[in-house]
Specification:
The complex is a heterodimer of chains A (96) and B (438).
Chain A lengths: L1 H11 L3 E3 L6 E2 L2 H6 L4 H5 L5 E4 L4 E4 L9 H5 L6 E2 L7 E3 L4
Antiparallel strand pairs in A: 1-6, 2-5, 3-4
Chain B lengths: L2 H7 L1 E7 L3 H12 L4 E4 L14 E3 H7 L3 H4 L4 E11 L4 E7 L7 E3 L2 H14 L3 E3 L4 E7 L2 E7 L3 E9 L6 H5 L11 E10 L2 H8 L5 E9 L7 E7 L3 E9 H7 L3 H10 L4 H4 L3 E11 L10 E2 L2 E3 L15 H21 L4 H13 L1 H8 L3 H7 L1 H20 L6 H36 L1
Parallel strand pairs in B: 1-2, 1-10, 2-7, 4-12, 10-17
Antiparallel strand pairs in B: 3-6, 4-5, 4-6, 8-9, 9-10, 11-14, 11-15, 12-13, 13-14, 16-17
The chains are: A alpha+beta (96), B alpha/beta (438).
The complex binds flavin-adenine dinucleotide (FAD) and iron/sulfur cluster (2 copies).
Flavin-adenine dinucleotide binds next to helix 2, strand 3, strand 11, strand 14 and strand 15 of chain B.
């Protein structure tokens, strides 16, 4: 897992972002506590979601989001609040 | 400003949401007919949020931009098409070359190509508003009359939704429901820098020629997933798309699969020492014909990925997007001329789409994804591996008589799949072929 984290960080390093100060991704904390699959974490191509065992909470590194929409569709409880970031924010692909 | 005076001031004939191939084609069609059209795109520029393989197809692009070959930012004209069936360590590749001076497709970089299309559309009178997210549709008596963005409201007689696969707006318009993880693929892609001469050498192609790989199996064995490679002038695009459901079921990370694909012995030498310049990700609609939503309602039409118009097996999407956008544009012009924006008038869009290759192709493959999903272990696991072991056997030079090897191979197929299994696989293939050809 550690190695996987390194790999994805190197990839995300190549992406140009203008991060907002507020998250456009808002999981429902109560659903996440009961969620078994944590499917958002599995499908996310940018490793945005991390389950924190000690805090019993889903951490959202929204600054890394590639705005693909996968997590919203995958969410086991259908409770993940998902919006596009503001027009001036988020990812800008130079190639795509 | 009151909503009423705003309605008057900020009003055009048509609003198009989304500056991808569908939206741009739609907007330019409307502008050419002399109608007032505004295109709203959330990215910094058109193309800045878009990702594909990929190749654009010459003929459909020509329908919208007849002279694109002279001034669009094209990378290479594709002359070689390879189908690679990867086993765990080995590979069988079929390749087709055609040096026709009239190429079927060109590789492009979307951030450049979509931007170019948008600039062309602007020259022809489309008002382009960027860095603006449409948050919701404005409805009046169940008719769509405009859109709400972060800053202001825009009003029009018709709104065309070309906002891509996630289309939150089509859902609000009530023409589409939630997307199911079975009906969409998660794709990841990398653009790898490699100099022109090395690309030509490794892919055995000329300076301006391109090579496409369509990849089955490998890290995606047993799963509904496809990989791709496209050659650009000085870079290689490599990626894969895999049904979301498979990722959830097997707890696989999409980027880990891509890394495995890059390490496959048949792929690694092609990209050796190439440097990662950009990683990206996007969804691909995969539900096929059966999941196409209603394409119109009062005051609104849906096109491109928002309408789930993608032909997965052939990596076709931009062409379906452009033609559906054009047809929606033509219908919008008719409606504006008649001053009638009812669902009945806009249903002409659906009718013309049914008559075009777009819906016909979608229909042709209506059973493909279902059959593949149902028989994934056989068609996407067992047989791809078996094809490779056939060639392993066929190319082997040892002291076993050939006939013994051939018989051994056939016996192994019967043993592994069983008479019943083979019969059922054969039947599925026949059914699928029948559904495609009839
Ligand atoms: C990995 C991959 C490989 C592919 N390979 C190929 C290929 O080789 N050839 C091919 O023809 N097709 C390919 N496709 C499919 C093709 O990319 C799509 O079918 C095509 O881009 C659809 O065009 P579109 O205009 O409908 O949507 P998009 O290109 O997705 O454009 C939608 C636009 O709407 C904007 N938008 C979305 N929501 C809003 C909003 N609320 N407000 C304002 N703007 C908004 C987005 O920023 C975007 O610019 C591939 C797709 C993927 C993901
Ligand atoms: S899948 Fe949904 S409910 Fe589960 S952890 Fe992720 S956001 Fe929470
Ligand atoms: S939209 Fe895509 S990249 Fe962003 S958090 Fe969801 S899955 Fe990850």
């Amino acid at each position: 897992m550690k190695n996987e984290n390194c790999m994805i960080e190197a990839k995300l390093y190549t992406v140009k972002y203008d991060a907002d100060t507020v998250s456009h991704l808002v999981p429902d904390e109560e659903s996440c506590k009961k969620c078994i699959s944590k499917a958002c974490q599995t499908v996310c191509p940018a490793n945005v979601y991390e389950w924190n065992d000690t805090e019993n909470r889903l951490i959202v590194n929204f600054e890394n989001c590639l705005e693909c929409g996968a997590c919203k569709i995958a969410c086991e409880k259908h409770t993940l609040g998902w919006q596009y970031p503001k027009g001036t924010k988020g990812v800008t692909f130079k190639q795509g | 400003m009151s909503e009423n005076s705003e309605k008057f001031l900020n009003k055009t004939d048509v609003i198009v949401v989304g500056g991808g191939p569908a939206g741009i084609s739609c907007a330019v069609t409307i502008a050419r007919a002399g109608k007032k059209v505004v295109l709203i795109e959330r990215g910094k520029f058109c193309g800045s949020k878009n990702v594909f393989g990929g190749a654009i197809y010459a003929e459909p692009v020509r329908e919208i931009f007849p002279n694109f070959e002279t001034n669009a930012p094209l990378e290479r004209k594709n002359t070689e098409h390879r189908y690679a069936i990867l086993g765990e360590e080995d590979a069988t590749t079929v390749s087709y070359r055609n040096n026709d001076s009239n190429p079927v497709s060109y590789s492009v970089i979307r951030a450049k190509f979509d931007r170019w299309m948008a600039d062309e559309a602007k020259k022809e009178g489309v008002i382009i508003v960027t860095e603006t997210v449409v948050r919701e549709l404005i409805l009046e008596k169940e008719r769509v009359i405009g859109v709400r963005t972060e800053l202001e409201n825009y009003y029009s007689d018709i709104v065309v939704l070309a906002d891509g696969v996630n289309s939150l707006l089509a859902k609000q318009a009530g023409v589409r429901g939630e997307i199911d993880p079975h009906d969409v693929a998660v794709s990841v892609k990398e653009v790898l820098k490699l100099d022109n001469a090395k690309i030509n050498e490794r892919f055995n192609i000329g300076d301006k020629d391109g090579c496409i790989y369509e990849i089955f199996g490998g890290p995606m064995l047993n799963m509904l997933g496809l990989g791709f490679i496209y050659t650009n002038q000085n870079s290689i695009s490599i990626g894969l798309g895999i049904t979301m459901n498979e990722l959830i079921k097997h707890k696989l990370r999409p980027y880990a699969l891509l890394d495995k694909l890059k390490e496959h012995p048949a792929i690694a030498p092609l990209i050796k020492d190439a440097e990662l310049t950009e990683y990206s990700a996007h969804l691909i609609p995969e539900g096929g014909y059966k999941k196409i939503p209603t394409l119109y309602a009062s005051g609104v039409m849906v096109c491109g990925d928002a309408a789930m118009l993608v032909n997965n097996l052939h990596w076709e999407g931009t062409n379906l997007a452009m033609i559906s956008g054009k047809l929606a544009g033509e219908t919008a012009v008719i409606a504006v001329n008649k001053n009638d924006f009812s669902a009945k008038t806009l249903s002409k869009y659906q009718q013309s789409l049914e008559k075009s290759f777009v819906m016909k192709d979608m229909k042709t493959y209506k059973d493909l994804m279902g059959t593949m999903a149902m028989k994934n272990e056989q068609f996407l696991g067992y047989y791809p591996k078996k094809i490779n072991s056939f060639f392993k056997m066929f190319t082997a030079v040892n002291c076993i008589p050939k006939r013994t090897m051939f018989r051994g191979f056939i016996k192994s197929v019967f043993k592994e799949r069983g008479i019943f299994g083979l019969f059922s696989d054969g039947l599925s293939i026949l059914k699928l072929l029948w559904s495609i050809l009839r």
